[in-house]
Amino acid sequence: MYLAPLNYDRYFKKVFKDTLIAKRFLEDFFDITIEEIELLTQKHKITDDAVAVEFDFRCKINGNYVIIDMQQWFKPDIVNRFYVYHCINTALQLEEMPVKSIFINEDVTKEIKDYSLLQPVVTLIWMVEDTLGYTDDYVGYNMTPEMVSDFITNDKLWLEKDIQKLIAEREIALKQLNNNTKNLSFLKKNRLIWAFQKNIVKNKKFSKYKPWFELAEKTRNKLNEKADFLQFEQDKIFAEIIRRICKDALTVEDINYIENRDNFWDGVSRYEIGLRKELMVEVIMQVKEEVREEIKEEVREEVREEVKEEVKEEVREEVKEEVREEVKEEVLNELKIEIVKSAIDGGLSNELIQQLTKLPLNEIERIRKEQKK
């Protein structure tokens, strides 16, 4: 081993406590120029129960408060955890927030915190293994009006063929997004960003931040050598990183720490494999039940159609008999009418025709009248 693993907390902090290194990383990742960077306290007591939170890295750059935290392995609460950290980094600004006096009446004023000086918080989570299901280098979240996401997810709207209607809806969403009444834009300046080392080194997209993650990935190899890092030594910032985590700078305690951490991560990996197997079984059972319900619905539909056909056949025979009797009656009536017509032509009286056909006299008279026409 030539370099200690940069992804281990101890060496990550050892590297990033150097202001110049931290400044350069943040400039490369956010593609900005930092005029001023101030390292902030990393460990804080949050509640009366002495619960403490410790950030891997915390600073203030150009007015923004920034956290960087390194995540080594799969944790199911990764989203909730860093949302809390993000909120804490906002709340910690209360420590230094000045007060302002509010006039109540002639003799009374009230002092309150001046929240207008609250600065946005950017939380960057450096993910070593987990990718949260993304294939991108990183993904960012911020707070925007609900209408913006509604505009994107409205399937019915995007089936609209009239492009002018789409443009009109977009204008409405943009109007809400750009509304800065009483500093509403402050909300979208707060960001949570997950950067995925695994994806960055695999995607190999051209970016300023790529070398940082490549260097970290190379240090994960327990058998890494000096030759693996020659390309980085030409840059004075990376050369300083190499100097800080080079084996020549490691103490016996550092070596033991690395060995213990390696053993720990091996155990974590085995645990994760076991956990994934358990989750896989659980997911399989869940999917099986879902598929069972889907198949049950399909079979129910098939049976419904079969039963419908069987009932149709039975009803068909029954109706056929009913129709047969109806048609029989109609045919008999038609024959009687023909007999009446023939009898009228033969000069028979209505009374005699009635005896022959059993038809009412008024019906026979009606036929006789129609015959004369």
Give an account of the 3D structure:
- This protein starts with 8 loop residues before the first helix and ends with a helix.
- Among the domains are: 9-143 and 190-250, no CATH class; 145-184.
- The protein is elongated.
- The strands form 3 sheets. It has a 6-stranded mixed β-sheet with strand order 1-4-5-8-10-9, sandwiched between helices.
- Strand 6 and strand 7 form a beta hairpin.
- It is built from 13 helices and 10 strands.
- Helix 8 packs across helix 9.
- 55% of the residues lie in helices and 13% in strands.
- The protein has 373 residues and is α+β, with helices and mostly antiparallel strands.
Output the keywords:
373 residues; alpha+beta; 6-stranded mixed β-sheet; two-stranded antiparallel ribbon; 13 helices; 10 strands; 55% helix
